[in-house]
Each structure stands twice: as C-alpha cells, then as structure tokens.
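User: Predict the complex with pyridoxal-5'-phosphate.
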Amino acid sequence: MTRRRAPEGIPVLIALDTKASGSLSRQIYRALRDGILAGRLTGGLRLPSTRALAIDLGVSRNTVVTAFDQLLAEGYVESRVGRGTRVSQTMPDHLLHARSRPRVRIVTTAPGNSAPGSSPSARGALLVDHARRRSAVDEGTVAFAPGVPALDLFPWQLWSRLVASRARELGATSAGYADSLGYRPLREAVARYVAVARGVNCTADQVLIVGGSQQGIDLVARVATDPGDSAWIEDPGYYGALGAFAGAGLRVTGVPVDADGMSVAAGRVGAPAARLMYVTPSHQFPLGVTMSLSRRLELLAAAAEMQAWIVEDDYDSEFRYVSRPLTALQGLDTEGRVVYVGTFSKVMFPALRIGFVIAPQSLLPAITAARKFAGTQQAVLEQMVLADFITDGHFERHVRRMRAVYAERQQHLIDALRAECAGVLDASPAGSGMHLVGWLPPDADDADVSRRAATRGVDAIALSAFAVGRGAGRPGVLLGYAHVNRATMFAAARGLAGAIRESLAQRPRVLAGRASRGASD
Ligand SMILES: Cc1ncc(COP(=O)(O)O)c(C=O)c1O
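Assistant: Here is the predicted structure with pyridoxal-5'-phosphate placed in the model:
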C-alpha cells in the first residue's frame, strides 16, 4: 500500500536581517510568532518543513529547528508525525497577551475597512448594488434557479475522455501564451455553427472567445462607448448587462417590453441619443417574448439613425420547441452595428465559462485589445475539448436530446403549478427557453414571496429584481425548469404555493399596520 505524503506547507515570507543583533533563529521565531498573533498565519495552517524553510532562507537547518522548537514549547504550533508542523488551532489566552508585544497590529477586520477615503467609487458602489439583485448564495442549482441546464444529463464520461485525450497532448506547442481571440479551431466551429443554426453573417476572424457571455457584454460595453454615454436596456432586463454597463460608466435607460419585444418608440422618447442598445430578441430575458421581425427592423433603423451599437444576447436560442427560431438580428444587419454575443453555459454547463462575441470588423481591433488587457486569453484546454465536442457532432446531439427533455420538463412545471398553485400563480406554456414567468395576483409583493420561498428551499427570483425602470408592471417570479426533475418540480411548487399564500395572508396586516401608524403620526 502506498501512503500519500502530506503536502508541503506553503512558503512563508520571512525577511532576515543578517546585520541585526539577535540570532537568526530568534528572528525566524519572532517572524512566525508575530504572524500567528496577527492572524496572518491561521490555526491549522501547515508550515513549511524545517528543511524547506532552511533552504528558502539560506540558513542551516538547525537554525530553523531551534526556532520551531521554541514555538512548539510555547504552544504556538503543534507537530504530529505525518501531519507536519501546523499553527495551533486554539491559542492559550496568555499567548495572546504575550509580554513582548508583536510588532505588527493584530488585524481583526479586513485591512483598510474604515480608513478615510477607502470607499469605492460611485461606479463601484453601483456595481455592489446591482450584484445584490442576485446573490452568490442563491445562484445554485435548486428548483427553480433560472438558466441552469440539466447538469445530471450532460455526457460527463464522454467529456472526461475528450479532456484526458487533449490534456495528454497539450505539451510544448499549445501551453504558452496564445492568440487573445481564442483557439482557432473553436472560432471556426463557432462561425460554422452560428451561420447554420442562427443565420449569423460572419467569418471565423470575427469570432472572439471570451469567459462567458458576461465577459463579452462587459468588453463590448467598454470599447463601444465612453463613460457617460447613454444605453438602452430592456425593462425588465438582464441584470448581468446592467452590471456591465454600470462598470462602463454608462447612463442606462430601461426601455419597456411589449408583445413585440423592446419598444423602440419608447426608447426614442426615453433616451433619444443612445450609444448602445442591449436586447435579447430570440427570447427576451426575463419575460420570454420573441422580438417580431418588424420590431427588429425598427431597432436596426433606430441604431443606424443614432449611430448606436446593438448588443444581441442570444443566450438560450437553442431551446425552441414549437417552430424554427427567427434568424438572429445580426443576420439582418447591413451596417455592421450588431455585436452578437453567445454562450456555452446553457447547452454545455455554466462552469465551463466559455462564450463568444461576433464583432463587426470596425469594432474588432478594440475588442481584441480589450480582451488582451482583461485576462489575455481563455484557458486553452477547455477550448480544445469544446472544439472537439462540436466538430465530432456531440454538441448537436446533446442539444437535440436536451430540447426534448426541456420541453417535457416545461410541461411538468405547468402540471405542477396547476396542481399546487391554482388560484395564486398563473403560468402559460412557452415555445422556447429554460424558464417561465409565474404571474402573481396584482396586489402580491413578489420580493416578499421570493424571500419566503427561499426559506422553504425554493429559488423563485422576483420579477421586480429585474426592473431597470418601472419593470414588468406586474408581480411575478421566474421559474427555471431545465434542471428540475418531475418529483422535485411538484415538491418545489408546493413550497412556492405555501410561500405565496403566506405572503398574501400577511399583506393586509402590513398595509393595515402602516395605515394605523400613519393615522397616529
Ligand atoms: C440573459 C442572459 N444572458 C447571458 C447569460 C449567460 O451568461 P454566461 O455566458 O456569462 O454564463 C445568461 C445566464 O443566465 C442570461 O440569463
């Protein structure tokens, strides 16, 4: 049997002063002790071996052993065979009040938390605000998180085989810095795919591989506009775009969405000189409307008139159940104003973090440069494997399979809502996508419903969380179904129904309470 060797501890930075009066072992002892007392070396942290530290510091091993013995004797560190030397988990009280005070301050809060002038810019504060719309905690995979594919049905074994095969050959030729635009065979595969499946007009030279469409939207916002420029976003709309636009310092106008998609006429009134227009024409996020052809042409005309760029976010168009999708807006663009953004998060899996931007020629140099300064390039191994996955036909097969699964799951969701949420939630079948909107009674508070649902383990984001201006004008919740099996669907619908009923029951009392407080003021 082979025993796994415990890993070496992390290297510790110690600056020795050979001219100082104290011995070198005393300096090492003090540096480590100060680090422990200051909380920089935390309980359980494994220290480097005496041999490794001696080599790092250029001193004899005995010098380090003497320092470690002292720390051990005083209880700052513990040593066990096979586990190396670690910082003690519990520090005796008297050590925290050691006679010779550490020269470093004990840090109890993040450094700089309260220093004057240390708060972020207004732009930074706005980003924090937008990020709160959806916290990292609830970006999970429980029902009904939107936009999460059926991860359990992904062909992981096949994927692992492809990864292993590419990892073996990565070697000297592909492991260095590479083209910021991305791995060429993947760019070619993407160009072929979007031309056939989405009617996008492009060559592989226009395809830029990015870290998910979120990074694509962020890059486009920064190179297509200047801070202070005006931008349109669908209202309600995708908070990812809102955050990226805040990061670019744009003035954002929420443009209402009707049955034909974003209302260009309303946009013209709200912000007549937009520089950037963000749309999800195939499947409006979050309402699910498909932008009509006449509205697409109207939008292109408005962009031409205003000399604006359009960002077309085509995030889940693969999942269309009833008819062929309309071709992409980009395919109708004759002026080179549309930047098409796509993602592999929905067909493949979100943690892959691969998306792409198809940029008009005129924007290509700037966006390529921006990509260079924002992370240089996407990790190459995953790009290679994804290119294989597409060119070997697995991508197409997986889309077809998932399309059938998601159509069925949407029906399960409708069934579950009819059975469990009758009278308090209304949802209609949709021809595409991975989520539905569940409409609540007009006087419901969707944020309150969402909070109560979360306490029951159900993730139902409030529609109001996507309001850019007035929002949808009606309360509702977003219900992602792609990753939820039938049994979970019914249980989650029951939980959601409980949350809605509880919220509705509380509502009159809250209003009554407010009214009586108002009367006595
Ligand atoms: C409207 C919209 N755009 C894009 C994305 C995908 O983002 P990414 O490719 O960064 O994972 C999502 C994911 O939920 C989305 O809802």
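Residues 146 and 480 are 4 Å apart (CA to CA).
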